[in-house]
Amino acid sequence: MNFNDLLNNDSSEKNKRQGVVIFFNYGHTNLEPLHELESKLRILLYNSGTGELDGHQMALDMLDGFLYFYGDSAEELFKTIKPALLATPFMKKAEVNLRFGISGDNKVTDIDFILE
């Protein structure tokens, strides 16, 4: 993926890919720690070519949030980002959802677990 790919990201392509969604407890007063983690994750994903970080969603009180990832393999995505997540204190005990299959397909399977 190059810079132009990031700018010309077609959202319909995301619907054809597998995903990882992570719900985490945050509790910081600003987004700097989250942005630092996102930078690390983007570099890992770019270097491995396994997928992309689509962004985050935070509660207004910043007590918790979500991270969204897409790629060709939810399992490979998670294997790529797992070490960085485990090294981040606010990711301890995060809830992870791996979505296998293609959205809209009757064969979509989800696996949920706690990051430990």
Q: Which helices and strands, and how do they pair?
A:
Layout: H1 3-7, H2 11-14, E1 18-25, H3 32-48, E2 51-58, E3 64-71, H4 74-86, E4 95-100, E5 109-114
Antiparallel strand pairs: 1-3, 1-4, 2-3, 4-5
Helix pairs in contact: 3-4
Would you write up a description of this structure?
With 116 residues, the chain is α+β, with helices and mostly antiparallel strands. It has one domain: 2-Layer Sandwich (Alpha-Beta Plaits), CATH 3.30.70. It has four helices and five strands. It has helices at 3-7, 11-14, 32-48, 74-86; strands at residues 18-25, 51-58, 64-71, 95-100, 109-114. The chain has a five-stranded antiparallel β-sheet with strand order 2-3-1-4-5, covered by helices on one side. Helix 3 (32-48) packs across helix 4 (74-86). The longest helix has 17 residues, at 32-48. It is globular. Mean pLDDT is 88; it is low at 1-7.
Largest sheet: 5 strands, antiparallel
Distance between the first and last residues' Cα:
30 Å
CATH topology: Alpha-Beta Plaits
Report the uncertain regions.
1-7
Number of domains: 1
Task: Kindly estimate the percentage of residues that lie in beta strands according to DSSP.
Answer: 25-35%
Query: What's the helical proportion of residues?
Result: 25-40%
Mean pLDDT comes to 88
Q: What are the secondary-structure elements, in order, as H or E? A: HHEHEEHEE
Q: Choose one word for the global shape.
A: globular
Report the total helices: 4
* Text of the CATH class: Alpha Beta
* Number of distinct beta strands: 5
Strand order of the largest sheet: 2-3-1-4-5
